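> call design_seq(struct)
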């Protein structure tokens, strides 16, 4: 059996993993931060 070299192309590449994990975690985290900011809006004075 020959060992395959990780060439950085395909689903086994670290870049593919980072793209999938990054994209699937970024949106929920941003939505949670926006909800927290909206829920604590009253703590900060309004700009005039």
């Amino acid at each position: 059996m020959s060992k395959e070299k990780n060439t950085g192309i395909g689903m086994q590449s670290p870049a593919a993993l980072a793209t999938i994990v990054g994209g699937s975690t970024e949106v929920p985290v941003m939505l949670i931060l926006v909800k927290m900011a909206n829920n604590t809006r009253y703590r900060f004075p309004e700009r005039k």
